[in-house]
């Protein structure tokens, strides 16, 4: 049981390049999330998927797209990377259910640098 | 808008001293409350959670937190700090009313001095 896995762990991009961050969970969770973490800013939600087939914008969605490929996988795409997207990206999942405790489980993160 | 406030972006304590990390939330309904810990270069790990079963919640590594509805607070404490407690701590809240993601505070970095 690996929990939440993310690939790659590190990535360096040049401005304008594109890339996809991959996330997978093996806990049969309904909901998945993408966050970015920057110094002094805490975690900011980029996009989330409450259930397979749905996605919603979070606090900072500009410059990103997501795909909920299936129940296990949720990818984050940067179409044209900018230096402002230099950050650590975390994927999380939760067994989201109405009226229940939607505790989130986090992956180890992807450290992205855009030059 | 619902929010979570962590007072103090950086807290420094001596080894063996009391650890107190503060968290306040804004809410019109009773929430679910969480504390997460992040060690350097790692993801977030659940420390403890409040789900209305008891107001004093015990977590891993000797940490505990008390839910005080009248103060809208959920402060994290540990009686005696250990060097290994040095990490960043995040308070998070979710509300029963909808399928909304957790709202995180901005985090408090705990330093432990020998």
Could you give a short account of the major beta sheet of chain B? 6 strands, mixed
Number of helices of chain A: 0
Seen as an oligomer or otherwise, the chain set is: heterodimer
Give the SSE order of chain A as H and E letters: EEEEEEEEEEE
Proportion of beta-strand residues of chain A: over 45%
For the biggest sheet of chain A, the summary is: 7 strands, mixed
Measured distance between first and last alpha carbons of chain B = 41 Å
Number of helices of chain B: 0
What spatial form of chain B do the alpha-carbon principal axes imply?
Answer: globular
Helix content of chain B: under 10%
| SS-based class of chain A | mainly beta
> Which sequence of SSEs, written as H and E, runs from N to C of chain B?
EEEEEEEEEEEE
Mean model confidence by pLDDT of chain B: 90
Number of strands of chain A: 11
> Greatest interface and its residue counts?
A-B, 26 and 24 residues
Strand tally of chain B, please?
A: 12
Class computed from helices, strands and strand pairing of chain B: mainly beta
Q: Could you list the spans of chain B in which at least 5 consecutive residues all have pLDDT below 50?
A: none
Strand content of chain B: over 45%
């Amino acid at each position: 049981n690996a929990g939440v896995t993310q690939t790659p762990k590190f990535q360096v991009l040049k401005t304008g390049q594109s890339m996809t961050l991959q996330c997978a969970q093996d806990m049969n969770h309904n909901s998945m999330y993408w966050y970015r973490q920057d110094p002094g800013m805490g975690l900011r939600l980029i996009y989330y998927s409450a259930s397979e087939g749905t996605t919603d914008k979070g606090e900072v969605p500009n410059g990103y797209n997501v795909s909920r490929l299936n129940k296990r996988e949720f990818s984050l795409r940067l179409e044209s990377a900018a230096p402002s997207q230099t950050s650590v990206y975390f994927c999380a999942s939760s067994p989201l259910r109405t009226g229940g405790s939607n505790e989130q489980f986090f992956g180890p993160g992807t450290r992205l640098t855009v030059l | 808008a619902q929010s979570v406030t962590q007072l103090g972006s950086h807290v420094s304590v001596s080894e063996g001293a009391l650890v107190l990390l503060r968290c306040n939330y804004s809410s019109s309904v009773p929430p679910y409350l969480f504390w997460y810990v992040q060690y350097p270069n790692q993801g977030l790990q659940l420390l403890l959670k409040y789900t209305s079963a008891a107001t004093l919640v015990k977590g891993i590594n000797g940490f505990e937190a008390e839910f005080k509805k009248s103060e809208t607070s959920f402060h994290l404490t540990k009686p005696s700090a250990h060097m290994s407690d040095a990490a960043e701590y995040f308070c998070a809240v979710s509300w029963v009313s909808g399928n909304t993601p957790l709202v995180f505070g901005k985090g408090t970095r705990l330093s432990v001095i020998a």
